[in-house]
Amino acid sequence: MATISARTEIEKEQLNRLRRMLHAILPANEFYRSKFADAGITQVESLEQFRNLPFTAKSELVEDQQQHPPFGSDLSFPQERYIRVHQTSGTTGKPLYWLDTEESWDWWAECWKVIFQAAGVRSEDRIYFPFSFGPFIGFWAGWEGARKLGALAISGGAQSTTQRLKAIVDYGATVLVCTPTYALHMAAEANKAGIDLARGSAVRVTIHAGEPGASIPSTKKMIEESWGAKCYDHAGATEVGAFAFQCASQPGAVHVNESEFIAEVIDPNSGAPRKAGEQGELVITNLGRIGSPVIRYRTGYLFQSSHQPCPCGRPYLLLAGGVLGRVDDMVIVRGVNVFPSAVENILREFSEIEEFRVEILEKATMKEMKIVIEPSSPSGPIEGLDERVSRRVRERIGLRPVIEFVAPESLPRFELKARRFFKV
Ligand SMILES: [Zn+2]
Fold this sequence. Notes:
Radius of gyration: 22 Å
Shape: globular
Bound molecules: zinc ion
Number of helices: 12
Distance between the termini: 44 Å
């Protein structure tokens, strides 16, 4: 357990940073100036007082950008100070456009440096980014973080999976940064081309984001075995920053970078704080993105806080199991919360499954789950696979799914934010 003095130090520094940030953004930042004026707040004197500030919801930011197009009013400086713009993927509605100043962008890069260092990545490493370098922020920020670290960054933009595999081998890449899904897709393609990545590539560390996979035990195991590498998770969001990372002790959890973020776990319905060890929605405040901050921002992601000590000795809050899922992706079956990540964990235990899609039939009287499976064998499903999958799902989450097989290559492949769970 973190010592009391280490926690006190963290909280003292958080309060200092918060006060400095509020001083810098109020009254220049119109979004927070009017939000806090409505709540009668001009400064925060303690963390208790901070916890009484109003939450910031994503819907407020979306509405603000609609009223003040295109970038909204959560801006602390004139627009000419901003040097980068990115957008959210818009999977849950209209995309948000997010600006960064030079200082804020530098802060993002520093947060990524923390992720790399915690995974044991060093300046002599060669980091490969099999990423299309579109308008999404995640891997752009990782790219900048690699520069901060002094490592060699290799772009895999505008390349096919085959070209990327060749580049990884030819450049002697030692670190791979991508979504868990894409790491598995590359491994499957390598397998088909007769490339043994575990022996034939120098990749020793993989770092993932965008999906919960790298904290799902069986997905992580599959990535580690196919790449012959250690697999690390991290969590971040466009409007928030890269707020959590995994350390080399790999306790099956991610650490919140509490030097740069204040984290709270709340009941998603009532907003009341959750106790240590309970599941809830993560609320984040970033302390270094002065140009476009979020304060008590409801991330929409469910996490479970843990007060177990981490063998690495970092006093930061641990979130057990990484991202458990989105609040709106959770399904309640017979009073039990079922997350897509729990279903993925089961399906990834079957090497005979290459890709899958899950449909929750919400309208049925008894909730039904249909699992569409694309087998890895080109000759079709292996005898009895449907029975084995069905049995394991029922044992673990108490639901008997309907299993359907489809032909190889018929389900979509994803480079970013795989979407495999649908409520119908
Ligand atoms: Zn640790």
